[in-house]
Model the fold of this input.
Amino acid sequence: MHYDLEAALLNVLLLWILTAPHEFAHAWTATRLGDDTPRLEGRVTLYPLAHVDWIGTAILPFVTSLLGAGFLGWGKPVRTNPNKLRGGLNGLAIVSLAGPASNVVMAVILGLAAVATLKAQPSVAQFFAHGVELSLYLALLNMLPFPPLDGSKLLLAARVPMAVYAELGRFGFMLLIVLISVTRLGIWLNEWSYLGMRAIFSALRPLG
Done:
């Protein structure tokens, strides 16, 4: 088995860069919808350490990248109170979608950075380009309906019975790891994010 230490370290570094705006987007959106829980817990910030989950933001993404088994990672979940959110569970769905949406925005920003540095600093541009692909990967990954990923909150908004959601919460994490590790799910996510990256650079090509 081939172990790519450099790629694993690079993915973790990029994950740290991308986690802060992702979790900030959740916290800011929840605050705008009337829930002060993220503000009281210090989550309406772009300071990276406020959003780090050491398992999800360091250990697990490093291991899955090192083993070449896709990529699995997340930040410290932003707690929200649906009773305070305008729209209740519908508001929770909006808060959940804000994180993956921020990843798409970050992918475009990193794409612009890659185009701007391509001629002067090709290695830096390559780093940014990899960030585009990883950011899109995280957007797709987070839409999967497994706790603690954002897609699981959409199940609540869809009025999935709480008993079903609770059971998924018990076993969803291990199921997610198995799916990423032993099925083609991780490969598919990589392929889709690569296609998204190509689409972004195709759109940005006139700026190069």
